[in-house]
Amino acid sequence: MSYAAYKMMHWPTAIDTCVSGFVTHSRSELAHLPQLHTDDLDSEWSSRRHRGGGIGPTPNLIVASGNVLEVYVVRVQEEGARNSTELKRGGVMDSVAGASLELVCHYRLHGNVESLGVLYVEGGDDSRRRDSIILAFKDAKISVLEFDDSIHGLRTSSMHCFEGPDWHHLKRGRESFARGPLVKVDPQGRCGGVLVFDLQMIILKAAQAGSALVQDEDSFGSGAAISARIASSYIINLRDLDMKHVKDFIFVHDYIEPVVVILHERELTWAGRVAWKHHTCMISALSISTTLKQPTLIWSIGNLPHDAYKLLAVPSPVGGVLVIGANTIHYHSESASCALALNSYAAPVDSSQELPRASFSVELDAANATWLLKDVALLSTKTGELLLLTLVYDGRVMQRLDLSKSKASVLTSDITTLGSSLFFLGSRLGDSLLVQFTSGLGSSMLSPGLKEEVGDIEGDVPSAKRLKASSSDDLQDMVSGEELSLYGSAPNNAESTQKTFSFTVRDSLTNVGPLKDFAYGLRINADANATGISKQSNYELVCCSGHGKNGALCVLQQSIRPEMITEVELPGCKGIWTVYHKNVRSHSVDSSKMALDDEYHAYLIISMEARTMVLETADHLTEVTESVDYFVQGRTIAAGNLFGRRRVVQVFERGARILDGSFMTQDLSFGGSNSEAGRSESSTVMHVSIADPYVLVRMADGSIQILVGVGMEAAIVNGSSDSESLKLWHIVAAISVIDVNLKNLSSKKSVSACTLYHDKGQEPWLRKTSTDAWLSTGVSEAIDGADGGAHDQGDIYCVICYETGALEIFDVPNFNSVFFVDKFVSGKTHLVDTCMGEPPKDLLKGMDEEFAGAGRKESTQNMKIVELAMLRWSGHHSRPFLFGILTDGTILCYHAYLFEGLDGTSKLEDSVSAQNSVGDSSISASRLRNLRFVRAPLDTYTREETSSETSCQRIATFKNINGYQGFFLSGSRPAWFMVFRERLRVHPQLCDGSIVAFTVLHTVNCNHGLIYVTSQGNLKICQLSSVSSYDNYWPVQKIPLKGTPHQVTYFAERNLYPLIVSVPVQKPVNQVLSSLVDQEVGHQIENHNLSSDEIHRTYSVDEFEVRILEPSNGLWQIKATIPMQTSENALTVRMVSLFNTTTKENETLLAVGTAYVQGEDVAARGRVLLFSLARNPENSQVLVSEVYSKELKGAISALASLQGHLLIASGPKIILHKWTGTELTGVAFSDAPPLYVVSLNIYCCGAHQYNMLGKSTDRHTASNLFRVTYAPA
User: Fold this and answer.
1) Which positions ≥6 away from 764 have C-beta within 8 Å?
2) CA 253/CA 315 separation, integer angstroms
3) CB-neighbour burial class of residue 511 (10 A; exposed 0-12, middle 13-18, buried 19+)
4) What is the β-pairing status of strands 612-617 and 603-607?
5) Facing residues of 1023 across strands?
6) Average pLDDT, the chain
7) Around Cβ 894, how many Cβ atoms within 10 Å?
8) 983, burial (CB in 10 Å: exposed 0-12, middle 13-18, buried 19+)
C-alpha cells in the first residue's frame, strides 16, 4: 500500500487534557456501580453506602492525546467480591480492592484537540440524562458529542464553526494567535463558553430539560438515555467590555443565572518591570443572560499580581473563585477576599500590608488543580509535587487559606476528579495515573494491609501481574521511591479540623512521549542470519522521552521477538497442541485447590504430514508415541480437553478418540474406514472447534457434526445443512444420546466456517442480551468438576458462516437460531440481528472513517469466511469478540455490546410471524434480541492472501502467557492480538517468517510460555519478555533515568548507547553566581544587593553529563559517565568515523559538542570533545579516553562525519574539518544566516556523491539540503 504523504506508525500517547463526566451512563444507572456478586444486590449495596465504604457513582474519564480522543469507564472491585482472587494493585483502601480503566471508545480525529470540556446535565444523582463532550479545534471550530447506546460510540449532536469570510472580523486583522480556543462549562450545565481569538467568547446555550430539542427521540433509538445538547450560540466581544489580554475564565457556583469570572490584564508587564509596574491583573464577574444575550458586570476585583494565570471555581456552599499565581493564591467572592503568599517574591499591593505566608516556600507557575473535597483542592506543581489547599471558612465567610505538602508524583499536564474517591493525573511527560484517595480526621486511613512504601506492595505481586498492572518500568520506579510515592498521609495545618489524606495508585496509562531524539540500534536477541522482512525485527528504536524526574529511555520495537529457551528441527509439522490430564484417582486435596492457570500440561501432540507424534511434558520433553493409545498413523486435525481436563479428545481426518491420559477409552469414526478407498468428502474432517463438553466438526463437503460428551461418554450429533431436522447417528451401542432437534438452518448452502463459543462464568454475558436464553441451555451444569463442583458453568453457542456470506448463531444443544446477520462478509460497521431490523442508514454517517476502504463490495462473488472465532477472555466486565478471516487475508474484528431498544420486541414479533424459518414464538423469545456488534479497527495488521482450501487453523487462543491474554495468528505474517482494557493491541512477529503452528506451553522449565513451528521446520520453545509492556501501539520498555535525556546515538561495534542527560541539582545562590564568570576578562557578578538569606538560598541548576549505556538481558546498565564542566551544557553527541591523515587509518570516536551558558553578559563559547571507547578486559566496564578537546567561539550545536571528515555546526556556520590524530583543521565552510543549525545528517545519493541534510531553526523549523563536492587536486 502506498501513502501520498506519510503513514502514522505510532499514534500519540501523551495526554494533553482530561475531563470527567457521566457520558456513557447517567448518575442514576447501575452501570457505574461496583459489582458485588451477592444474592441481595440492593440490600448489600445500600448497607455499604450507609457505612461509607466503596467509591459510589463514578463518571467516565475522557482524555485527549493530540488528535486521539478516548473515553474510559472506571471498573471498581469491592473487597470480598468473588472475583477478587487476583491481588490488585494498591491493596485495599476504603473497602475497595482495586480499580482500573476500561476503554469504551477510541477515535482518531482530523485535527488536534485544543481544549476539552463536559456539558453537565441539570439535576442530582436521580437524573437519567447524560453529559456531553465539547471539543474545540483551531481556530474556532467546536463539536459537541454524545454517547449513543445503539452504536456503542460517540456521535455528533451539533457543530459550530466561526471561521471563514463571515467571521473574519473576529480576528481584527490578525492571522495567528498564541493559544487555541479554551472551553469552560457552567457547573449547573446551563451553558458553556469558548474563548477564541483571545477576546471573543462564544456562549453555547444548553437546551433545557423538557424542551422539544431534548425530548425529541432521535433516529438512533437511544431511548430514555438522552444527553445534554446545545440549543443555540452567540458571541460576546470582550473588547466591548473594556477587557484586554484575557488569561483565563471560569463559571462559578451558586448563582441564579450563569456567572463567568474572567481573569484579564489591562496593561502588560513582565518580571523585569515589576519594580515599576505590578499587580496589573484583575477579575470581572459577568452575569450571562442566555435569553437577552447581554452580559452584565456584577462585581470585579483589581490589583491582582501580574503573574496570576489560572482560575478555580470554589464549590458550594462557599462559592467564589481562587486566583492562582506563581507566588500567591487569592480567594475572591462578591463579599469576601483573602490571600496566601507562597514565597518571598509575593508582594502586597500596599507595602503597609503583610500577606499571610505558607509554612514552606513553593512556586505555582504551570500548576494544575482539582477539588478533592468541597473545601480541599489538590495542586500539582511543575516539579510534580502534590499540594493540598484547605479553605477554612465559617458559614459563607472565608477566613484563611492553608497550604500543606503531600507526596510527589508525575509531572502533570492536566488533572481531574473522578467521583468522590478517585482522581486522574494526566501527563505529557510521563505515565498518567489513576489514584484513589480517602480522607478522614486524625490518623491515617490506610487499611492494615496497605503499607506506606509502594515497593513492599508491588513486591508481593508476581512479575507478570505487576507488569500488567504497571505499564512501564519507569512507573514502577516512580511509585517505588520515597520522593515520588503517592502513598502515605498528608495532614493539614488547619486548627479547626485536622484532615488526613491517603493515596494509592490504582492504574496507569503508558506514555512514550515527548520524543526529543532517537537512535536506530540492534536488538539484544537479534538474528544475524535473518533476511527479508524478518530482518526488520532485528532493530529497535531507542528514544529520549520525558523530562526531569520522568525522563526515560523508551525502547520501541515494532514487532515481538520471544525469548527462546530451546530450538529443534522438525520438518513437515502441520499443527501442535498441548493438553492437560487430571487423574481423578490420584487427585489429591492439595492439587484440587491449585488454580487452573498453575496446572502443568501433560502431553504435547505434534501433527506431521502423514503421522502424529506425542510427547510427554514433564521435566523434559520425552517422546511417548509408541506407548500411548493416540491415533498416530495419520495427521491430527485438533486436540483438546473435555470433562474438566480429565479426558483428552483427539480428532483426526476420519474419526476421534477419547483418552484418559495415555489410555484410550473410546474410539469414534465419522463413517467408512480409515483407508484411502473408503474416504469421501462427507466423512473427511476439515475444521474442529472444542468447547467442553462439545466438539464441533466441519466436513469437507460443508456439513457439520457435533460430538457431545455425556456422563464421561460421548455421542455424535450430525447436523447437515441439506436437511431440515437433525438426524441422530449411533456410533457405539453403549453410547448415551441426547435428543437434539435442529429446525432452522438458515441456508441450504454449505458452511464455510464455524466455531463454538463457551460463554463461561457465574454470569454468562450473552444471557444479558436475552431474558430467557438461559432456559434452553445449561448442559454444562451436569458436568462435574474435579473437586466435585460444577465445572465451567455457562452457555455454549455455535457460530456458523455460510458460503453465501451470512452469519448465524445457534444455542447448543437445542440448535435454535438466536442471531442472524446477512452479508457478514461485507464488513459492516455494525452487526444487528436481522429479525430486529437493520439499523438506520443515518447511523453510519457519523461513524469513524477507519473502515472507509475496509468494507467489501457486495458484488464480490468469491469472497467468503475461511475461519471464524468468537472469544471472551477473563474479567467480569469483558465482552465477546467475533473474528472472521476472509479469503484475501482480511480480518474482520467485532466487539459485542448490549443495547436494549424500545421497539425491539414489536419488530421481533412481526418478523417471527412473517418468516417460516424462525418458528413459533417460544423459539423467538430465546433470541439474543439485545445483542449487537461494533467493528473494531485493526489497521496495524497487514493482511495476507489465504487459500480457501487450506485446513490449517490460524487462530490459537491463549489465556495466560506471562500474564497476558489474547490469541496468536499464524501464517506468513504472524501477529499477536492481546487484550488490554477491552481493546485489542496487535503486535506482529516478524523474526521467524511464516509460522505454521502455535500453542501455549506451561511446564516446570517453561512457565506460562509458548511453542511454535516455523515454515522452515524449526520448533521453538519460548517465553514472552517480562521487561516490555505490550499495552501500547508498539511493544515498549522504559528505562528510568532520573533526569532529562537530550540526545542519544548508537555505537554499533560495541553495542553501546552514548546519551546526554541533565540532572537538576540544588546549589546555593552565591555558588551559582560565582560560576557566571567570563574566564577571559575576569568579569565578576556583583551580589552586594543580595541579603544574607538570599545568598544562602538554594537554586536549581541543570548539570549535564554523557552516560554510556549498554543493554544486557533486558536490563540497561551505565558503563561509564563523562561529566561536563560547571555551566557547560552538552548539546550534541555522535559516533563519528574520522580518517587519520597521519596513520592513514579510520578511527571511530565519540564526538561531543557543548556550550557554556553563563548569561547574556558573557560571550558564547563551546567545546568539541573526542573520546575513544574500549572495553576493559578485566571487567565489563567501558574505558573512556579523551583524545581531543578544543574550545571554540559559539555553541557547538551539531556534529556529523563525512567521508572521514568532521562537520561542526556552530549556529549558522558549518565547518568541515580533517583529523590528523591530534588536531582538527578546517578545510571548508558554509554560512546559512539567519538560521541556526541544530542537527546534521549525511546520506549517499550515488557513487562518490553525498548530500548533507541540515535541520535549522528560525521563526519556523526548516530543513536545508547541501551537496558536498570535491575540487580536483
Assistant:
1) 774, 794, 795
2) 6
3) buried
4) antiparallel
5) 563
6) 80
7) 24
8) middle
At residue 1187, the pLDDT reads 94
pLDDT of residue 891: 93
Question: Rounded to whole angstroms, how far apart are CA atoms 987 and 456?
Answer: 32
Highest mean pLDDT among 38-52, 455-469, 1035-1049: 1035-1049
Q: What is the DSSP string of 360-372?
A: S----TT-EEEEE
Residue 550 CA to residue 1038 CA, distance in Å, equals: 10
Question: Measuring CA to CA, which residue among 219, 122, 195 is closest to residue 843?
Answer: 219
Does residue 1209 sit in helix, strand or coil?
Answer: strand
The residue type found at 1158 is: Q
Closest-CA residue to 844 (of 110, 153, 103, 144): 153
Closest CA to 1162 of 1193, 1183, 1125: 1193
Q: Is the pLDDT of residue 1223 over 90?
A: yes
Please report, for residues 124, 882, 937, 1038, the alpha-carbon distance to residue 557 in angstroms, rounded to integers and kept in the order given.
Answer: 48, 28, 21, 12
Q: Looking at residue 803, what DSSP letter applies? A: T
Return the closest-CA partner of residue 906 out of 821, 816, 836, 818: 836
Q: Where are the alpha helices (DSSP H) in 95-253?
A: 212-215
DSSP of 281-298? EEEEEEEEETTTTEEEEE
**Sheet strands (E) in 570-643:** 575-579, 603-607, 612-617, 621-623, 636-642
In tens, the pLDDT along 519-549 reads 999 888 788 777 777 888 889 999 999 998 8
Question: Which of 153, 1, 14, 155 shows the shortest CA–CA distance to 71?
Answer: 153
Question: Distances from the Cα of 41 to the Cαs of 33, 56, 879, 978, in angstroms?
Answer: 11, 14, 22, 33
User: What residues contact 569, with CB distance under 8 A and at least 6 apart?
Assistant: 1017, 1018, 1019
Mean pLDDT computed over 462-485: 37
584 vs 594: CA distance, rounded Å? 14
Written as one string, the DSSP assignment of 17-46 is EEEEE--SS-TTSGGGSPB---S-HHHHHH
Distance CA 919, CA 835 (A): 12
With b for 16 or more beta-carbon neighbours within 10 A and e for fewer, the 1243-1263 pattern comes to: eeeeeeebebebbbeeeeeee
Instruction: Supply the pLDDT for residue 448.
Output: 39
User: Nearest 5°: CA angle at 335, between 332 and 336?
Assistant: 45
Per-residue HEC secondary structure of 993-1035 comes to CCEEEEEEECCCCCCCEEEEEECCCEEEEEECCCCCECCCCCC
For residue 1119, the number of C-alpha atoms closer than 13 Å in the C-beta half-sphere is: 23
Phi, psi angle pair for 1124, to nearest 5° = -95, 165
Q: How far apart are CA 304 and CA 311, in angstroms?
A: 12
For the chain, how many residues are written? 1273
Q: Is the pLDDT of residue 108 over 60?
A: yes
- Rama region for 644: left / alpha / beta (φ>0; ψ in -120 to 50; rest): left
> Is the bond preceding residue 813 a cis peptide, omega within 30 degrees?
yes
How many CB atoms sit inside 10 A of residue 123's CB? 15
CA atoms within 13 A of residue 1197's CA, in its CB half-sphere: 19
Please state, as a whole number, how many other Cβ atoms lie within 10 Å of the Cβ of residue 41: 13
H-assigned helices in 948-1105 = 1069-1075, 1092-1095
CA distance 1187 to 385: 43
720, 703 contact by CB (below 8 A): yes
Q: How many Cβ atoms sit within 10 Å of the Cβ of residue 710?
A: 16
Pairing assessment for the beta strands 830-832 and 552-556 based on DSSP bridges:
unpaired
For residues 16 and 65, the answer to whether their CB atoms sit within 8 Å is: yes
CA distance 586 to 607: 30
